[in-house]
Structure formats: structure tokens, C-alpha cells
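Box 3.1. Reading complex inputs
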Amino acid sequence: MIEGIELKQYLHELKKHTAYDFSDYSDNSIHRRILKILKDYDISMEQLIERTKSDSAFVEKVVEEITVNTTELFRDTHIWSAFYEKIYPSIKSKKFINIWHAGCSSGMEVYSNLILLNELGLLDKARVYATDINTRMVTMSKNGQYNYRFNYRYLDDFNSTLAKKPINGISKIDFSKYFDIDEDKDTMTVKAFLRKVPQFIKHDLVQEEVPFFNKFDIVFCRNVLIYFNSKLQSKIFKLFYEQMYPGSFLLLGNHEVLSGFYKTKFIKNGPVFVKNTAFHFKY
Amino acid sequence: MKGQYKAVVIGGSAGSFSVVSRLLSKLDSNFPLPIILSLHRLKHVRSGLVEGISLKSNLKVIEPNDKEKIVAGNVYLAPSNYHMFIEHDGTFSLSTEEPLNHSRPSIDHTLSSAAFFFRAKLVGILLTGANKDGAKGMKDIADKKGYTIVQDPSTCDIDTMPKNALRIMKPNKVSSPDEILSFLNNLA
């Protein structure tokens, strides 16, 4: 257990001495993450607070561990099926398709999405930005190298959903087009033609201005907002709303929903939230 | 008993689906408390559990969204691939942080957070299962003076989970599924 007052003091010092502000992260989750850090580093709350004031390399490491980096290739296959079958065909005539992955973690969903765009012949139209607060994750995303045995099954999962219900006559994606696989080293590496498409940027959604000027057709932000309190969630919904074109798509995690004022500014349509306009799709 | 408790939380793993199904099919449809379920799922069979449990349930079964408020009379099932917690304001919060005891959802996470929120007003029940998840959570409920029931190992498909709990805590009761059912119906 950490005393509430100590936790508040830590968050206060973090805000004061670093570029990070976690004071509107949800109480329970920040409490758990800090407990884990105290245990992993075998330090006291007092020591954590002291090192936060003076040791910026340590702060970076702690931030990397506070943030959660769970992701998968084609996580929740039904969502990718919807993009493949309905959403991309509905916007394929656009000159550009601007996409933002906010909180991209190790980049697996960025590449899952690029594979679908390539399958649909839309890769050249895609302008993709992917951001994460965690420097280590941004580097990993750029490298596009993952553990093969653990991750390849998620590609098989997507192919089994396609096999059950082919989309546009396609019942299987040949994933060997997209990855170099080294079974001895147990790695799968995204091929260069995909890796060069996205711009991966270290960016703190909570504290920093958005690092681009354009608006977006699709914003992916999956299982990021669950770590924020309602007040901070509303701030981020506003940010997304302002960065999105009318009729564009916001994809949250499977069990995340819009709340408060911005709930009325989007319409839930199948797995996506569509920015409210006169223009409606039915999925 | 009536009015003494505010929620029931149930953890289960291998073999628990049929026990939970049976409990929910026999509970009074006016059961007055929220029932919070943290059940392990088979890897790669991520969907279908809520439908399976709903089939025979007299109560509405929901996989809650993040920040959803707990409402009495509903059954809440930890969504696939998420940990489910009770926050300090009585809402659910979800997390995709690393598996605990090789599990996400982890029973310990749900039980411990419920113990901290409901304290003595919680009934914690641990059912059949094949690992050690849930033991720590049951101990937390007992430490907060909540009421604890562990399924009688002799009635379990796999008794590892109840036995692991019994090793570190002493529940108020060790019961068969039928005894658990009559205990719950007495709360109504």
C-alpha cells in the first residue's frame, strides 16, 4: 500500500520537475503502477520522489514502466474486418487518407492497418502518424521487429476469420509479403516498404501540442484512455474532435466509450465512433 | 443477513462456467445485489462467454465498459483480455496491463479492488480452477472483514484454486455449489 498523500506528493514533484503530468491518471491504476515500480526497483516512495527531482534518465525509465504497452497484431479481428470490408471502401476515392495512431505502443496495430491498406491498393494514399509517450516503444515501432512464435498466431487468427467469412472474395492474406521471418532468432520483421510509411513520433497526449498540422480521417486510440480519469478523458475527446474531419472515424478499445459532452458529437456505428455530421453510414 | 452486504464477487477458472451458470439460473430474478464475476477464459476463445452465461441467467449479464457505474441486480463479467477493477468511486475500471498469475482478467485484481471498496459489505466467493489466482484476493476480502466462501474442493472439477486459497486464508465457509446457492438466496 502507498499512502494517498505520498502518491499525490510524487505526482506533484513529477509535474514540477519533469515534462510529465500523471495527476489525472485514474487513481487505482497509477497506484498499481507505482507499487510495481517500487517493487521492481526495490526502493521506497521517499527514494522514488528524491530521484524524480534529480535523475532524468531514471524518470524516463519510470515513465516507460508506468505506461502500459499491451498490443497485438490485428487485435480484435472483427474491427479489422470492418475496416477491410466497409470503412476503407467507403473512403477509397479520397486523395489522401490521414491516419493517427495515438498511443501506438510497439506499432503492431499500425502495421496491421498498413497491411490492409496495401491489400486494398490504398497504401500510396495513406499518411500515417503514430505517437507514443514511451521512447522505447517508439523505437520498437520504427524497428518493426517482433517475437515470431508469440505473434504470428495473431496473423493466423485474422486469416481464420477471413476463411470463415471471405471479404471481397479474399479468404486469406499472404502475410509473407509483409514480414521477414527468422525462425532461428524467433523474429518477424516488417518489410522496409511498410516500415517507411508511418512517421513514429514520441509524444505525450496529455501534455504536448499535437505534432502535426493536418486533420485526420481515422484516429486509433485503443486502451489508452482507460488509464485516465473522466476529466482527462474529456480533454482528449475534445482534442480528437478538433483534429478530425467531419464524418471521420474514431476507434477506441473494445470496452471504451465516449462520455460527457463529446458523447453527443460522435455516433457509434458498429465498432467505430463517427464524427457527427449530416453524413451517416450503416455498418 | 439481508441488507448487510452491498455486492457479491465471484472468481472462477477451469470448471466454473457450469457452476456460475447454475447459480445464475437458480437465483431469484429480484436478487438485490450486484454480482461481479472474474472468470478465466480459454485463450483464443475470447467471445461467447457472456452469451453462454446469459442463456440461463435470471439476471442481466453485462461486460462493463470502462468507468461504468455498478448497478444493483446486474451481473458484471470481466471482459475478455481486460483486468477489471472497482474504483474508489464505485465504478468499474479496466486495464490491459500485464497478466497476473498468467491471467487477464486476473481474479486477484478484481477481488482485491472490490475488497478495498466494499470492505465488510462484500461477499467473496472462489470457485473451482486450476491455478493460484484468487487466493490473494480472497485473503484481502477476509482481511477487510468481508464474508468469504471457498467452493468445497471435493465438489470441484479442479481443486487447485480453492486449495491454494485455503492455504493462505480461512474462509467463513467451505461450501458446495448448492450451499452457495442457498446462501445467496438468503441474501435476497
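In summary: Chain A has two domains: 4-66, 77-275.
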